[in-house]
Amino acid sequence: MEGGGSYESGDLDNLKATELRLGLPGTDEPEKLPSMLPRSSKRAILEANESQSKRNPSEIKSLEEDQKPAAKAQIVGWPPIRSYRKNSYQAMKMEAETTGMYVKVSMDGAPYLRKIDLKVYEGYKELREALEDMFKCFSLGEISRMDESNVHEYAITYEDKDGDWMLVGDVPWEMFLSSCKRMRIMKGSEAKGLGSIP
Amino acid sequence: MSEDEDGGGGSAKSRGGGGAPPPFSDQVLEIVLENVLQFLSSRRDRNAASLVCRSWYRAEAQTRRELFIGNCYAVSPRRATERFRRIRAVVLKGKPRFADFGLVPINWGAHFHPWVSAMAAAYPWLEKLCLKRMSLTDGDLSLLAHSFPNFKELSLICCEGFSTAGLAVIAEKCRHLRVLDLIEDYLEDDEDEMVDWISRFPETTTCLESLGFDCVGSAVNFEALEALVTRSPALRRLRVNHHVSVDQLHRLMARAPQLTHLGTGSFGSAAAAIPQGGNNVVDLMSTFAGSKSLVCLSGFRDVAPQYLPAIHPVCANLTSLNFSYAEVSAEELIPVIRHCHNLQIFWVLDTVRDEGLQAVAATCKDLRELRVFPLDPTEDSEGSVSDVGLIAISEGCRKLRSILYFCQQMTNMAVVTMSKNCQDLVVFRLCIMGRRRPDHVTGEPMDEGFGAIVMNCKKLRRLAVSGLLTDKAFAYIGKYGKLVRTLSVAFAGNTDLALTYVLEGCTKLQKLEIRDSPFGDSALLAGLHHYYNMRFLWMSSCKLSVRGCMEVAQRLPHLVVEVIRERDEDDDHEAVEKLYMYRSLAGPRNDAPPFVEIL
Question: Which of residues 36-95 of B touch A (CB under 8 A)?
Answer without folding.
Answer: none
